[in-house]
Amino acid sequence: MTREIIIAPSILAANFARLGEEIAAIDAAGADWIHCDVMDGHFVPNISFGADVIKAVRPCTAKIFDVHLMISPADPYLEAFAKAGADIITIHAEAGPHLDRSLQAIRALGKKAGVSLCPSTPEGAIEYVLDRLDLILVMTVNPGFGGQSFLGSQIEKIRRIRQMIGDRPIRLEVDGGVTRDNAAAVAGAGADALVAGSAVFRGNGRADYANNIAAIRAAAEAGRVPKLQYGSTSLLRTGASELVR
Ligand code: DX5
Ligand code: ZN
């Protein structure tokens, strides 16, 4: 057995005028996590939404809120996102000088801690914080906008990070330009959580979203790495049950 694939639709691609309904729709359509892209117009060249919006839509689903902070600094806002209902809080390795301290702060708030790497950041940036992590998020576009093309250069990074993780119960998530056409390659390199925005919110509501999610999931499952390359099954299962609601 390998860990189940997580599909995390990014609400950045939802209709913001009906955000609560869109979240309920992807929940019913089979989303595992709800991926929330927070952008500050400073760390990335775009502004999206903040903790108040997350708090407002939190009651729309019981699923895990996977909050991706593309903000700098992040530390002053961690508590607000924790209180808003985030389950996983992911910060960027490039967003501040004290990644180790920031990751400790997330766990001290009782939340799962994630770190994200921009495409140009090498995997060595997280080598000494692995034991503070519940999730690693590899950006396969330059963060800031939905609907960009997948950067194939990141496949090798995903593969290397999967090796670095070893037996640790850390989720390896990929974000940016993920579609049913590249999901197999991403899972084959070792990713077990796939974010998808425009590839999920395509069509007209729940039925279309369900088809889109199912197609990405099927492709990822077909391409996934056999368990022996991942290491210990029991540890992998422990990690999966902690991060699947
Ligand atoms: C990019 C965001 C992504 C993005 C995903 O800065 O972090 O989550 O919105 O959207 P697609 O799947 O459309 O690339
Ligand atoms: Zn994201």
Strand order of the largest sheet: 1-8-7-6-5-4-3-2
Major β-sheet profile: 8 strands, parallel
Stretches where pLDDT is under 50 for at least 5 consecutive residues are: 230-241
Ends distance: 19 Å
Distinct ligand kinds: D-xylitol-5-phosphate, zinc ion
Give the proportion of residues in helices. 25-40%
> How many DSSP H or I helices?
8
Structural class: alpha/beta
Principal-axes shape call:
globular
Question: For the CA atoms, what is the radius of gyration?
Answer: 16 Å
Average of per-residue pLDDT values = 93
Beta-strand fraction estimate? 15-25%
The multimeric state of the shown protein is single chain
Order of helices and strands: EHEHEHEHEEHEHEHH
Q: Total number of β-strand segments?
A: 8
What would your notes on this structure say?
The chain is α/β, with parallel strands linked by helices. It is 33% helix and 18% strand. The chain contains 8 helices and 8 strands. It has helices spanning 19-28, 51-57, 78-84, 99-108, 154-165, 183-188, 206-223, 233-242, and strands spanning 6-9, 33-39, 64-70, 88-92, 112-117, 135-139, 171-175, 193-196. Strands 1-8-7-6-5-4-3-2 form an 8-stranded parallel sheet. Helix 2 (51-57) packs parallel to helix 3. The chain is globular, with a radius of gyration of 16 Å. Bound molecules: D-xylitol-5-phosphate and zinc ion. The site of zinc ion (ZN) has 6 residues, from strand 2. D-xylitol-5-phosphate (DX5) binds at residues 10, 12-13, 35, 37, 68, 141, 143-144, 146-148, 175-178, 195-199.
